[in-house]
Amino acid sequence: MQKQIFRLYPPPFAQVNLAGLYLDHRLYTLGTADKPFVYANFLASLDGRIALEDIHTGETYLPKSLTTPADFRLFLELEAQADCLITHGGYLRALAQGRLGNILQIGAHPRGADLVEWRRRHGLAPQPAIAIASASLDFIIPESVRRHRQTVYIFTGEGADPVKVAAWRREGYPVIFAGRGEMVEGGRLIPLLGRLGYRSIYLIAGPRMLDTVVRSGCLHRLYQTITHQLMGGELFRTMVPGPELGPAGHLTLRSLYYDPAGPGGAGQWFAQFDNQ
User: Fold this and answer.
1) I need a labelling partner for 134 at 20 to 30 A (CA). Which of 81, 174, 210, 228 fits?
2) pLDDT category, 144, cuts 50, 70, 90?
3) 56: pLDDT strictly greater than 80
4) Residue 12 domain-assigned?
5) Per the confidence metrics, is the pTM higher than 0.90?
6) What's the pLDDT at 160?
7) Does residue 99 have a pLDDT over 90?
8) What is the domain range of residue 109?
9) What is the total count of domains within the chain?
């Protein structure tokens, strides 16, 4: 029997299947090259934690109590609809060190095995392209990316180390400047990806990239899973690390679902917000 959750908004209240919930949003049809459809997905506790920091090592980690199979399935459904994934050097470093799992390929996890065929039926490429945002340019391209022949672009700021820029270009990877300093700016990155032909862009790059994409007005939809737990923790990460956003951060609720069987017996909400 398929897992079911409850639709709270928009009315009417209804019981719905979890599998296929986000596929039905047809995100891959909403963007154009002139205006790519950009969406992000975050998982947070009631007190706003998206990750904690180890006070001894300084490493950031995702507490296991914050993750659920249901949330991961929906993450994979969003990934399956993307022409291009935006990730960052920090994730690739953590992946190489074994601190995080690989989420860069469609069908790599049993919960998303059906999504390979789903992409084929809907005329999408077997795998999305990968845009890596990095100021330091210190990371390793995973072997799985080469094995699946995924297109890779490296984006950095104009202040990046020219020696490292040249080294990546010698390896055959395009390095594109998308920021005036060392950091990548959302307002430059998204139009560049549009000109490269990408219409459906999934942001999986973390809070700093979310911050710059929101401030530039380039984010169209935010998906957020909110687990019904107070996490605490003296050192933690939240969704937007920058200064006050003001009206740029004002969102409109599009839909809200409730799963009573969330982490550790707590429930969770699956919320979607539109930004334009």
Assistant:
1) 81
2) very high
3) no
4) no
5) yes
6) 97
7) no
8) 32-274
9) 1
